[in-house]
Design a protein that fits this description.
It catalyses: (2S)-2-hydroxy-3-oxobutyl phosphate + 5-amino-6-(D-ribitylamino)uracil = 6,7-dimethyl-8-(1-D-ribityl)lumazine + phosphate + 2 H2O + H(+). One of its GO terms (biological process) is riboflavin biosynthetic process. This protein is an alpha/beta fold. It has six helices and four strands. The protein has a single domain, classed as 3-Layer(aba) Sandwich (Rossmann fold). A four-stranded parallel β-sheet has the order 2-1-3-4, with helices on both faces. Helix 2 crosses helix 6 and helix 3 runs parallel beside helix 4. The protein is globular, with a radius of gyration of 16 Å.
């Protein structure tokens, strides 16, 4: 692969060289319901690359929680109730005028890493932490009013879920 054919290397990872065995995987998605327009685009972006990597749609389950704070618990419950190879946790935190943003970011990030290490199941960090709505739209690839609608980070999360699930599967 040449440098020019790998545009994701700037804003995201180059996908893993092989997703062989992805059709065996069972993947979960837990998403928050705050900032729904952005969330929908991120969930769809994740589903798109899960499919491209070879995950079967019948092997994907999707659940929601109210906000990003609830994501670690939602992922933990999903992993305890279903036999899954990886879970993608999706949320969008937009900074407001109080300290909530900082506390929720910190706790949900730590919580998700803890769930992954405690359960030995890959948990993909699909939380945007942005300063403005504009930044959220760009990172979901839906800033259509601009020349460049941005990059949908959900695409990277779908590939990351498959790569990590295959690692854990071996
Ligand atoms: N949840 C999000 O997913 N994204 C946010 O940007 C967000 N901002 C919040 C701001 C405030 C002031 C509060 C009180 C909650 C916010 N939440 C947000 C919801 C939070 O993650 C959680 O669902 C609720 O606090 C209920 O536990």
């Amino acid at each position: 692969m040449t440098a020019t054919s790998a545009p994701h290397s700037i804003k995201g990872p180059v996908p893993a060289p092989s997703f062989e065995g992805a059709e065996r995987l069972r993947i979960g998605i837990v998403h928050a319901r705050w900032n729904k327009e952005v969330i929908d685009a991120l969930v769809n972006g994740t589903l798109e690359t899960l499919g491209k990597a070879g995950v079967l749609s019948e092997n994907i389950i999707i659940e929601s929680v109210p906000g990003s704070w609830e994501l670690p618990f939602g992922v933990q419950m999903m992993l305890s109730q279903h036999n899954l190879d990886a879970v993608v946790a999706i949320g969008t935190l937009i900074k407001g005028s109080t300290m909530h943003f900082e506390y929720i970011c910190e706790s949900s990030f730590h919580g998700l890493q803890r769930v992954a290490l405690d359960t030995r199941k890959p948990v993909i960090l699909g939380i945007l932490t942005v300063l403005t709505e504009e930044q959220a739209l760009q990172r979901a690839g839906i800033a259509h009013h601009l020349d460049d609608p941005g990059h949908n980070h959900g695409h990277d999360w779908g590939y990351a879920a498959v790569e990590m699930a295959l690692k854990a599967y071996k």
